[in-house]
Amino acid sequence: xxxxxxxxxxxxxxxxxxxxxxxxxxxxxxxxxxxxxxxxxxxxxxxxxxxxxxxxxxxxxxxxxxxxxxxxxxxxxxxxxxxxxxxxxxxxxxx
Length: 95
Description:
15% of the residues lie in helices and 34% in strands. The chain is α+β, with helices and mostly antiparallel strands.
């Protein structure tokens, strides 16, 4: 994001498969984790917080640190960490 190519982003454009880095999800957006970079320090800590492939997230705040709702808990993530999390956008739930 931020105007440079990030190696953690999908090979296809977001318009093709709705896949992008977690920092690209807008406030209120829902996304499912597709993958977390294996070389990310603290990857095990993210797993301990419930952030692993298949987890559905809702973005509460997009500033740094960003805040996501995962499994009923709020989790704060630095942008440098969120850029290493590849997600698929999900449709918005009905009000």
